[in-house]
Automatic annotation (TrEMBL):
InterPro entries: DUF7074, DUF7075. The chain crosses the membrane at residues 21-48. This is O-fucosyltransferase family protein. The keyword Transmembrane applies. Keywords: Membrane, Transmembrane, Transmembrane helix. It comes from Fagus sylvatica (Beechnut). It comes from the Eukaryota. The lineage of its organism: Eukaryota, Viridiplantae, Streptophyta, Embryophyta, Tracheophyta.
Length: 553
């Protein structure tokens, strides 16, 4: 079952692919594609900003490009790869999942014989009494029912069931990973179980609710101290993994006292030409600042307000008023690095700077390297950037000799778990068992000069014939595309059950959890599900194994 895999933008979670070595596959990928000449999606260097610092194609891709100049491909450049994408998936391999036989073993006293029913010998005329969700036997029954129902995922932990909406329902949460996924993340689900009791008091699970229906089992994580004053990480930090579906608490860190503020050392970047640029540019610059702060053992004072570039906005205008937390996991950043929001910082600074004699060191030339600032004793180092591009880009600080000294801490940046939650809801509706195809069309297909073959290569007929050998008839196929009219892909419907992002609108519309959480985060103002979010989610639904092929830094 290798055939499907050489199509670089096709992947699947199917059991047949078990045991395949993703890296070996990627290694063979480009070559095979070239030989066979099945070119659907190409990467054309021209689509990158000439000096896009983020994309350093691997040698293989470069070779591939120069040898087939007519290829009509494009990479998903629009989405930033973040820390969790680079985590070796094998970091979780050591965790053993819960086998159904494990549950049986714990169930010493249950005489249920492995089914999803639970027999209680003494009925005590309790026919109509509520189900006791806390009963360990009920717990075991629910675990068994869950493991048997969801074959394509592995379970790592079950939470104790709690009462659901009424006397005959229980809610239970669990942590899982798709059997086939290459993500380093864990996922959390919690569902509502309907339990019935028969005449002889046998309990059985008669229904399991949809994804995230067991709201009562959704517990908050224990509060951790805010990230401020955290000692910069050591290299041998313990690996933390995202848990998608866990409650997010990304409130801003607060400074507890004057003395802790005045003892602190800070770094802030102000001004510059990075605003409203692409998200790649934003992160490349932000991570330079964060890298410098870590190198200097200082707290980074950051601006959480982001300007969304017109390339992602529905208005086609740059849009101010976005927030770092719309797109990235601030909770993770706050917990693993020392950061402070600038509004809070300036308040405290103005309060205490004079009284405590806090010094400020202003740096206006990006050529002053972090190494030269290592001995600065002032409380605050402020890098100020001018108005002339490109010398006013933050990332210029990390160029030259600094490059080998200051590392960009990619592992501190994860995608927003609220967005990832939408991704896992989609995957869950597809039972974690689907193929996906990434098709770039949109305006590019119309530009025949720049993309002479794109229209033809992504025409439904060509696609059908290309996919024919790789994806079995009748499969669920998720199509990630920038083609505005999904009816364009109607011909594929005869063979496959096709799915597009917009089919899942309810996950971000006004009644969704995402919407209400974002509104709360945004001080009561609704947040639009913008172009960058769309494309983040769309490309994430794609199985993870391809991502290792990107080579940053
Ligand atoms: C590129 O396209 C031109 C014109 O369509 C064709 O003559 C040429 O052989 C193609 N080159 C490759 C490498 O496919
Ligand atoms: C896990 O990945 C790392 C590289 O990221 C590699 O060095 C190591 O050998 C891998 N371990 C296993 C068990 O595959
Ligand atoms: C569960 O354990 C049994 C016996 O140890 C084993 O045969 C079976 O393959 C395991 N199931 C999975 C999904 O690993
Ligand atoms: C309890 O709730 C479940 C699902 O919400 C429903 O199917 C069931 O009929 C309810 N039971 C009672 C007794 O109301
Ligand atoms: C109890 O009733 C259920 C269904 O009504 C039946 O499947 C089960 O075998 C019965 N168990 C006993 C011990 O009678
Ligand atoms: C969120 O975390 C902060 C700091 O870690 C804590 O002070 C706050 O109480 C938490 N909020 C909620 C709602 O748990
Ligand atoms: C930062 O702290 C580490 C460990 O405490 C120390 O080794 C390093 O020299 C410090 N760096 C600077 C620039 O002060």
């Amino acid at each position: 079952m290798w055939g499907r895999s050489y199509l670089s933008r096709t992947g699947s979670f199917r059991p047949e692919n078990l045991g395949q070595n993703a890296l070996a596959m990627i290694g063979n990928l480009c070559f095979t594609m070239f030989v066979i000449g099945v070119l659907i999606f190409t990467i054309i260097a021209a689509t990158y900003e000439p000096e896009d610092p983020l994309f350093h194609p691997s040698t293989k891709i470069t070779t591939f490009l120069t040898s087939t100049s007519n290829a009509t491909f494009k990479s998903d450049n629009t989405v930033v790869r973040t820390g969790e994408d680079f985590m070796a998936a094998n970091q979780t391999a050591f965790a053993t999942f819960i086998n159904i036989t494990d549950v049986e073993n714990i169930t010493e006293s249950a005489e249920s014989g492995g089914g999803n029913t639970l027999e209680v010998t003494s009925c005590e005329g309790s026919m109509n009494s509520p189900i006791d969700c806390r009963d360990p036997e009920v717990f075991h029954m629910l675990m068994r029912a869950t493991i048997e129902r969801f074959k394509d995922i592995h379970f790592y932990r079950f939470g104790k069931p709690v009462r659901g909406s009424n006397d005959s329902t229980c809610d239970m949460a669990w942590r899982f990973r798709p059997t086939e996924g290459k993500t380093a993340a864990f996922y959390k689900d919690y569902r509502r179980f309907v339990i019935s009791r028969s005449e002889n008091c046998t309990l059985s699970v008669v229904g399991i609710g949809d994804y995230h229906t067991g709201m009562n089992a959704r517990k908050r994580k224990k509060n951790q101290k805010p990230g401020f004053e955290k000692k910069p990480e050591k290299q041998d930090q313990k690996i933390s993994l995202p848990v998608v579906g866990e409650v997010v608490n990304d409130t801003l860190p607060v400074v507890e006292s004057e003395s802790s503020f005045s003892r602190g050392k800070y770094l802030i970047y102000t001004g510059g030409g990075d605003r409203c640029k692409s998200m790649n540019h934003y992160l490349w610059s932000f991570l330079c600042a964060l890298g410098e702060a870590q190198y200097l053992n200082r707290t980074l004072v950051m601006d959480l307000k982001i300007c969304l570039s017109s390339i992602y906005s529905s208005s086609n205008q740059d849009e101010e008023g976005k927030d770092f937390r719309f797109y990235f996991d601030f909770e993770h950043l706050r917990e693993s690095a020392s950061v402070l929001d600038q509004d809070q910082f300036w308040l405290d600074w103005n309060k205490w700077q004079k009284r405590d004699g806090l010094g400020l060191n202003l740096v206006e030339d990006f050529r002053v390297t972090p190494m030269k600032l290592a001995d600065v004793k002032d409380s605050l180092i402020m890098r100020k950037f001018g108005s002339v591009e490109p010398d006013n880009y933050w990332y210029r600080v990390c160029e030259g000799e600094t490059e080998s000294v200051v590392q960009r801490p990619w592992h501190l940046i994860w995608k927003s778990r609220r967005l990832m939650d939408i991704v896992s809801a989609i995957a869950s509706r597809l039972n974690w068992d689907y193929d996906s195809v990434h098709i770039e069309r949109g305006d590019k297909a119309k530009n025949r000069e720049l993309w002479p073959n794109l229209a033809a290569d992504t025409s439904p007929d060509t696609l059908l014939s290309t996919l024919r050998d790789k994806i079995e008839d009748g499969r669920n196929v998720y199509i990630a595309t920038n083609e505005p009219k999904t009816s364009f892909f109607d011909p594929l419907k005869d063979k496959y059950s096709t799915h597009f992002l917009d089919e899942y609108k309810d996950l971000w519309d006004e009644n969704s959890e995402w919407y209400s959480e974002m509104t709360k985060l945004n001080n009561g103002n609704p947040v639009e599900f913008d172009g960058y979010m769309r494309v983040s989610v769309d490309t994430e639904v794609f199985p993870e194994r391809e991502k290792a092929d990107r080579n940053f830094q």
